[in-house]
Amino acid sequence: MELNEKVGSVKNREDLIRFIFHLRTDLQNNREKRGNVTLDDYLKAMEVWISEMDGFYLNSNQPIPNQPSWKTIADILYVSSMYE
Fold this sequence. Notes:
With 84 residues, the chain is mainly α. It has one domain (3-80). It is built from 4 helices and no strands. The chain has helices spanning 3-8, 13-29, 39-59, 70-80. The protein is globular and about 30 Å long. 11% of the residues are buried. The mean pLDDT is 91. InterPro entries: DUF7660. This is DUF7660 domain-containing protein. It comes from Priestia megaterium. Residues 12-84 form the DUF7660 domain.
């Protein structure tokens, strides 16, 4: 299962822990695919994406979260690894 598919399966804390393991493993094995490999770049991308994430949810026909869920946290972590 690809990382983008794993994001959709995050429903609880244990799922998020597993997802973070896979995200970290992917980063270690595929640094060239991830644009944000430094902590500064990653946090900067996270900041920007969180401020713009309503558009992502609208464009993908998902409800805009009022309260972050475990899946929302996984979305933020995943997208921040490549968002510019």
